[in-house]
Amino acid sequence: MASCGNYFPIAELAPLAVAGQGVRKRNPTMVFEAPARGRILSALMFGIAGSACTGVITSPSDTGSSSASGGAVARGASGAPATLGSSGSGTLGTAGTAGMPGAPGAGGTASMPGVGSGGAGLSNGSVAGAGTTATTGGAASTACATPSAVPFRPLARLNRAEYDNTVRDLLGDVSHAALTLLPADFGDGAFDNNAAALSISPALAANFAELAETLAENALATNSPGRKLILICSTADTTCARQIGDSFAAKAWRRPLAAGESDRLFALYTATRAAGFTHEQGVQMMVEGALTSPNFLFRPEIDPTPDSTAPHAIGPYELASRLSYFLWSSMPDSTLQSAAAAGQLSPGAGLTAQLQRMWSDPKAEAFYSRFPGLWLRTLNVSIAKVPSSTVFPAFDATLETAMEAETATFMRDFVTGDVNFLDFINAKYTYVNQRLAQFYGISGQFTSAMTRVDLSSNAQRGGILTQGSFLTVTSMPERTSPVLRGAWVLARLLASPPPPPPANVPPIEAVVSSVPLSMRQKMAEHATNPACAGCHTLMDPIGFGLENFDGIGQWRTLDNGVAVDASGVVTGQPFNGAKELAQILRTDSRVPRAVAQYLASYALGREMGPDDQCTIDALASAFQSQDNGRMSALVARVASLDLMRTRSGAP
User: Fold this and answer.
1) Alpha-carbon torsion (165, 171, 176, 182), positive or negative
2) Measured between alpha carbons, how far is 466 from 477 in angstroms, rounded to an integer?
3) Residue 283: helix, strand or coil by DSSP?
């Protein structure tokens, strides 16, 4: 079966529906027999999905039809070329065989613009609007003489967090079923919204089908918040059913319905009723079908010129989705959709007003927590590895939660406040609760709530480099890792990641000695290997400066009975200990550039490349010189970039 880049074709969802796999019988009044459900959903899986794995949503029916009563699916005609969508001209689908519809046509992969600041051939550079304290804006950043190229990129699938937030806003569902049924998305680079890494497999397709059933059933249950959101009319007739289907699908798919989509969605209702089921079961099937559609699972960008390699504007509804998934990790609300419909998302007062509104909306908490948490890798301390309970008995779930809360609360100050964001590196305060204060050795009366504490006179703590979350995620389960800590500083704060290690490098534990050795001494012996020395000279001198903190961030003066030597070197400057390291990094010009680079990567759902460097330089310069380091202003600049609003076809 053909694939679309790193995607499995959405057509692979269809066998799941046809076979009725994953269907559970929980509520007999709402959930009907699997074979009937499968036959009905198969029409949607093919008829609406089209070539969605490529960013193309086909409007004509391009598959065999489904029979709601006979059980067999008629042989389908060859699929029509994929004509709408964001790239590729599409190939003809295959003819269906008995019992299976024809496979839909496949087109090119969708693209996503790179970040850029305007310049020759584009429009007006990176306009961020008039700045206001701690909200948005700043002066226009310097346009690059050569604008960033618009790279061709895979179609963006909703990641697990985005899916969960979207069904919260769409259905009022706060059960977080997605967090239970869907696997975590790890992404590439730093972020889990990197489109190139968000593949889909048959197993994940089955999860989506099961989740859609669960959500649709729960949404229509008695007294569910979803009932009020879905049942916008109360008569059990076809007129009301179509109105419900059209309204729900337009919200779920984040755009007005295209020609023919209303009919195909309504066909789910009529097929369900023809099979002997109730009006509400027909509505449930439309809801389930809309949630299973690639129009919901992905963010296709409908484009009248999909093959044009010249940067060209995306549509207003697609721009609304880019903005909302950037700031809210969720779907656009009705106000943003209305602004899109009215053409009010172009740079200027309209866009500035929307950015200010979105930034102050409670849904922006998703950005406040997810951007710094993913960038710094502190969102989930033990997601990659759990500290050894034998070596670090103090580490438990309560301490882990406190570590994560400390960094999240701390970073929120710098994301949202009228302060210089870069002060997070060496700030003289933090947040602790009773458990974390005890762990850090901070005296005072504390509860389970996070409380701000002054660290001006604390010789051990201050800034992100002394927080348990960072120190734990950059350690091995049984020990510290100067390599990981040094690599983290290089990659996350200086945007200069070291090269990957060579193959067949012996582990640190392989160093043999007749006397106790500290980790620093073991590393020195390990780095004598010529294959290792090059990278270790970059990372180790940074990581050594953090050796006063053990593998879970507890202060120590001895390591394996040997006095800790926390001297190090960064950017050619010697230092001793974490606080001196932080002071040097706070004035390094690469740090604001790294912030701009990672923020643009998060906003655009892709890693930044060589063509983006002028844009990153312009953003970083304006961030420091014009915005006084305020994150809200940098967010507005990135959201207003010309290339945030453009795309191009495949070369």
Assistant:
1) negative
2) 18
3) helix
The CA distance from 311 to 405, in Å, is 42
580 is written with which tokens? Answer: 């001196």
CB half-sphere exposure, 224, CA atoms < 13 A: 21
Residue with tokens 């002394």: 466
Q: Where are the beta strands (DSSP E) in 97-205?
A: none
- How would you classify the pairing of strands 562-563 and 567-570? unpaired
CA dist 266 → 30, 32, 59, 143, 619 (Å): 18, 18, 14, 49, 48
Which pLDDT score, from 0 to 100, does residue 532 have? 64
Please work out, in degrees rounded to the nearest 5, the angle formed at the alpha carbon of residue 209 by the alpha carbons of 233 and 225. Answer: 35
Question: What's the pTM value of the predicted model, to 2 decimals?
Answer: 0.81
Hey, CA dihedral for 409, 582, 488, 322, is it positive or negative? positive
Single-letter code of the amino acid located at 368: Y
- pLDDT value of residue 589: 95
Give residue 312's pLDDT: 86
Q: How far apart are CA 12 and CA 604, in angstroms?
A: 28
pLDDT at 169 (0 to 100): 98
Cα–Cα distance measured from residue 153 to residue 150, given in angstroms and rounded to the nearest whole number: 9
Under DSSP, the state recorded for 573 is: E
Contact 231, 283 (CB under 8 A): yes
CB 301 within 8 A of CB 318: yes
Which helix (H) or strand (E) covers residue 126, if one does?
A: none
Instruction: Take residue 260 and report the two structure tokens written for it.
Output: 């023919």
pLDDT digits (tens, 9 = 90+) for 378-390: 999 988 789 999 9
Helix 349-360 to helix 334-341 angle, to the nearest 10 degrees? 170
Its sign, for the CA torsion 506, 509, 514, 520, is positive
Tokens 């706060």, located at residue: 174
Beta carbons within 8 Å of 55's beta carbon, 6+ residues apart: 85, 86, 87, 88, 107, 108, 109, 110, 111, 154, 155, 298, 300, 301
User: Which residue matches tokens 């065989």?
Assistant: 97
Pairing outcome for strands 558-559 and 451-454: unpaired
Give the bridge partners for 575, in sequence order: 568
The span from the CA of 73 to the CA of 100, in Å, is 6
Cα gap 532→526, rounded to integer Å = 8
| The predicted structure's pLDDT at residue 533 | 61
DSSP one-letter code for 115: P
* Residue 507: C-alpha distances to residues 481, 501, 533, 607 (Å): 12, 12, 14, 30
Task: From 321, 287, 334, 376, select the one nearest 40 (Cα to Cα).
Answer: 287
Give helix then strand counts, H and E, for the chain. 24, 8
Tokens coding 510: 């392989």
Residue 476 carries which DSSP code? Answer: B
3-state secondary structure of 10: helix
Structure tokens at 456: 């001006």
How far CA 115 is from CA of 130, 179, 249, 358, 650, in Å, comes to 21, 31, 31, 20, 17
User: Which amino acid is it at 203?
Assistant: A
pLDDT at 148: 74
Low-confidence ranges of the chain (pLDDT < 70): 1-143, 145-147, 188, 504-514, 525-535
Taking Cα atoms as reference points, which of 249, 256, 251, 264 lies closest to residue 60? 264
